[in-house]
Amino acid sequence: MAAHVTLATFTPTSPAPTSEEIESRLIELLTPGTFANLKDVKDKERSLRDRVLTLPVMAAIVLSLVYRQVQHLTDVLRCLEVEGLMWVEAMQVSRQALSQRLETLPAQLFIKLFEQVIERLAAKNKQMEVPPMWTSVASSFAAVWIADASTLEAVKKHLGQLQQKTGSVLGGKMLMVVEAFTHRPVAAFFDADAKRNETKWWSEITARLPIGGILITDMGFYGFEWFDTLTEQGKYVLTRQKAKIRYRLVRVLSNGSHYKDEIIQMGLHHTDPCRYPMRQVSVLWGKTWYHYLTNVLDPQQLSPQSVCELYRRRWKIEDAFLLTKRLLGLSYLWVGGTNGVQMQVYATWIFYAVLNDLCADVA
Predict the structure, then answer these.
(1) Which residues span the domain enclosing 4?
(2) Number of neighbours of residue 283 by Cβ within 10 angstroms
(3) Beta strand 236-240 with 214-216: parallel, antiparallel or unpaired?
(4) 65 class by beta-carbon count within 10 Å (0-12 exposed, 13-18 middle, 19+ buried)
(5) Is pLDDT of 157 > 50?
(6) Inter-axis angle of helices 20-30 and 338-362, to 10 degrees?
(7) Which CATH number goes with the domain that contains 312?
(8) What is the pLDDT of residues 294-327, one digit of tens each?
(9) What pLDDT is stored for residue 20 in this prediction?
């Protein structure tokens, strides 16, 4: 048996029934032709096991593990043998073969599958439905995205390299970027290091954000260097201001009894400069002042009220994490190796994207 594939330790349940609507949407987005240009190795270099458990077969198995909430590899293999899975006809595969294939199939292929899915969804939904109250904000930016990171749960330790480690071993850390008004995923990143600092994703996020787009983040991504880079590239950010940050007031745009809208200059020390001015919007909620920071300097483009309300939408990304980690099972990692964890992460986000698309159609 492979070293890193785990089975659930809680009471087993039967796989969820199939859904014609969900499966037809998955088939529509992933076939035909999706797998044709995604080959990990040449056919002549592959073992017999790999020739049987091809990428299309593995994609059907892993997606079924996620969407049908299968808790045991034995159960998904039984479904495969009796009825087939999605685009794969019924076939018999041993658990040992599947366990080994989960370790060796490059997770990068599932990343590419995810990217193809979101590209197809973006092409399908070119005219984004925006709530009336956000029409003016959406029209002012090329994109309005929310980004946040989340640490995965601990993986199960058993035979293999994880057994040698003391204490819990976390599955890693993932970064998700979604559209602010539809929650449709636009990018996802994974790192096996559960302690990775969010600032190390600066370059990846910046590269994805289109010119004229705005990204809403928490303070984990805060950094003068990043603010300057975004400003130079004609891109925008909205985040919370850190406490005790030294700055010089440049200009007061407007103020009232419960809010202040100011242009400020931060990075006053030469060792940590912030070359471009930023805008700080402060609002009094109850007895507490909250401070928001953005490089959108023109209040006509983004009003003080919109700054506050738009940042509040950042919490909507927690709904995506709640759905993927609790309802879609990403809080339970059925593999212990990094390769398998990545496959599960991206398969879950593929399924989330499909559910999001179905919900949008129903709405």
Answers:
(1) 1-136+338-363
(2) 19
(3) parallel
(4) buried
(5) no
(6) 110
(7) 3.90.350.10
(8) 999 999 999 999 999 999 888 766 666 666 655 5
(9) 82
CB 15, CB 70: distance < 8 Å: yes
Residues 100-116 have pLDDT tens digits of 888 888 888 889 899 98
| CB-based contact 239:293 (threshold 8 Å) | yes
* Dist. CA 289–CA 308, nearest whole Å: 12
Assigned token pair, 52: 């049987």
Are 131 and 150 in the same domain? no
Reduced to 3 states (helix: H, G, I; strand: E, B; else coil), residue 216 is: strand
Residue whose C-alpha is closest to residue 177's, from 168, 190, 196, 158:
190
- Give residue 43's pLDDT: 43
pLDDT in tens, 247-295: 999 999 999 989 999 999 999 888 889 999 999 999 998 889 999 999 9
Same domain, 226 and 274: yes
Cβ–Cβ contacts within 10 Å for residue 213, how many? 18
C-beta separation of 249 from 264 below 8 A: yes
Residue 2, pLDDT score: 35
Instruction: Find tokens 């035909």 and name the residue.
Output: 32
Do 47 and 193 reside in the same domain of the chain? no
Q: Are residues 234 and 347 in the same domain?
A: no
Residues 147 and 111 in one domain: no
Q: Is residue 130 part of a domain?
A: yes
pTM attached to this predicted model = 0.81
3-class secondary-structure state, position 252: strand
Tokens found for residue 41: 């190795």
Residue 135 to residue 130: CA distance in whole angstroms = 6
175 in Cβ contact with 197 (< 8 Å): no
Q: Is residue 59 a contact partner of residue 65, using CB atoms and an 8 Å limit? A: no
Structure tokens at 147: 């980004």
> Contact at 8 Å (CB) between 295 and 227?
yes
Q: State which amino acid sits at residue 201.
A: W
For the chain, what is the domain count? 2
